[in-house]
Amino acid sequence: MTHDEALAMLDALLDGELAPPEAREVEAHLMGCAECARVRERRLALRERLLHARNAITAPADLRRQVGNAIAGSGVTRFRPRWRAGAVVRIIGAAAALLLVASGGWWMATRGAAERELQSELLASHIRSLLPGHLTDVLSSDQHTVKPWFDGKVDFSPPVTDLAAEGFPLIGGRLDYVGGRVVAALAYGRRRHLISVFLWPASSPSSALSVPSAAPALVTRQGYHLLRGDCGAYTCWLVSDVGESDLQELVGMLRPSGSGGE
Amino acid sequence: MESTDHRRFEELILPHLDAGYALARWLLRADEDARDVVQEGALRAVRAFGGYRGGDPRAWFLAIVRNTAWSWRRKHRRDAEWEEFDDELHGGADPSRDADLDRLGAVEQVHAALGRLAPEYRDVIVLREFEGLSYREIGEAIGVPVGTVMSRLSRARKRLEELLIRSERSAR
Predict the structure, then answer these.
(1) Distance from CA of A217 to the nearest CA of B (A)
(2) What is the pLDDT of residue A116?
(3) For position A86, what pLDDT does the model report?
(4) Which of the residues A13, A14, A15 would you substitute to probe the B interface, choosing the one with the greatest number of B C-beta atoms within 10 Å?
(5) Where are the alpha helices (DSSP H) in chain A?
(6) Do A76 and B1 touch (CB under 8 A)?
(7) Contact assignment for B128 to A57 by CB distance below 8 Å
(8) Hey, which of A50, A139, A168, B154 would disulfide with A163, CB 3.0 to 4.6 Å?
(9) What is the mean pLDDT of residues A40-48?
(10) Is the pLDDT of residue A94 over 60?
(11) Contact: B151, A53; criterion CB under 8 Å
C-alpha cells in the first residue's frame, strides 16, 4: 500500500469503516510513517474537540418553553403540565432510589459518602479530560508506548492493552489525582464516545480507594455511567456516557483472564 | 395523538431537545435559524410520532431535525454564498475573513469554524460526528456513494482543522 493510499483511508480506519484486511494494511503503513501519525493525532484531537463542543450546547430555556407552547398549540392537550409533573415524579423517584442506596446503616452511610466523593472526583476528572488538550498526557494507541510512559510516574505498572480489534481503540493515558493518590487513567474510544479507565492497586492503603464491596458497582450521575470493576490486582473505575453494556464488556476484557478477548 | 402517545413523546423525544438544538446550531450558521428549525422539527416529530416504530428515539428525532434544517436552508437560500465552494478555488488563506474568529472561546471557535465550512462538508461532519451514522447511512442520507462519503469526510475534516488552526493563530 502506498503512502497516498494509506492516507486516503486513514479517516475510514479511525471511523472503523475498513474491513479487517484493509485496516491491517493501513495500520502497517502507519507504524513507519511520521506524517500519517501526525494526521492521525490531529484527527483524534479534532474529534475530541467536536465532541466537547457538541456536549457544551444546551437548548435555551425560552426555546424549551416555545417548543412546549408550540406543541401544546398543535392540539396536544394538557401537554406542558404533564411534562412538568412527569419530570417531578422522575426526580422524586430517582431521589428515593438514591436514598435507598445510601441508607443501610451509619457504617455503610459513611463508607457510601467516601465512595460518592470518590465518584465525584472520577467524574470531574473524566469531564475535564473531554476539554480540548486535556484528554491524554501520552497520546498513542500503542500499548508499548503507553505502558512504559507510566514508569516512574506511578508506583505501579498499570495493565495497558489496545482493544481496537474488540471495538475499544486505546487513545492514550494520563495521570490523575483522586482519593488522595496518583492513579493511572487510560482513555479508550467507543464509537464516537470516550471511556476513561482509572486504575490503582486493589491493595491500596488509602481508605478512600478501598471501597466497600456491598455498594452498587454501577452508578449514573449527570448522564454519565460510573462502573467499578475488578481488574485482577487492580481496582478499576470506568466513566463514560456510553451504555452500561459497553462498560461491562470493556471491564470484562480488562480483567487479566479475559484480556484480549481470546 | 392519543394520550398514551403524549406521554411516550414526552418521555422519549423531549429529553433530546438539547441534542436537536445543538445539531441545528451545527447545520445552520445563525442561532435564530437554529431555534426556528428545532421548533419546526419538534412539531414535525409530534405529527410523525404515530409512525414511530421503536428504535433509537434520539436518532429518530435528530434525523427529523436534520431534514428540517436542510429544507430550511433550501427555502431560505442560506449559505448561498457557499454554493460555488471549491477547495481549489478557495483554498488560499484570507486573513480578513478570520478576524471574526478572534478571541472566541474554544467551543465558539468550533461553531464558527463549522459555520465557515461549505454546507456539503458541514453535513458529512454532522452526520458522522453528531449523529454517528455509518458511511453507508451517510451515503443514503445525502445520496452519494460510500466512496464519495469517505473522501468528502476526509477533506471536510482537513478543512475544519485548517480553519481551527488559523483561528487559533489569529487569536494569539
Answers:
(1) 26
(2) 78
(3) 54
(4) A15
(5) 3-14, 20-31, 34-55, 61-73, 79-102, 106-129, 143-149, 244-254
(6) yes
(7) no
(8) A168
(9) 91
(10) yes
(11) no
Cβ neighbours, 10 Å, residue A199: 24
Distance between A175 CA and the closest CA of chain B, angstroms: 23
Q: Is the pLDDT of residue A25 over 80?
A: yes
Of B11, B17, B46, the CB nearest to A76: B46
**Is A63 within 8 Å of B47 when comparing Cβ atoms?**
no
Kindly state the greatest CA–CA separation across chain A.
66
Q: How many CB pairs under 8 A join A and B?
A: 102
Q: For A111-127, what is the mean pLDDT? A: 79
* Residue A85 or residue A117, greater confidence: A117
CA distance A66 to A228: 41
DSSP string computed for A168-229: B-EEEEEEEEETTEEEEEEEEEETTEEEEEEEEETT-S-TTTS--TTS-SEEEETTEEEEEE
Q: Which amino acid is at A194?
A: L
- What ipTM was assigned to the predicted interfaces of this complex? 0.80
pLDDT digits (tens, 9 = 90+) for A169-228: 888 888 887 877 788 999 998 887 889 999 988 876 555 555 545 455 888 887 788 998
Question: For residue A162, how far is the Cα from the chain centroid?
Answer: 15
How far is B143 from chain A, CA to nearest CA, in Å?
18
At A183 the pLDDT is 87
Of A49, A59, A75, Cβ closest to residue B18: A59
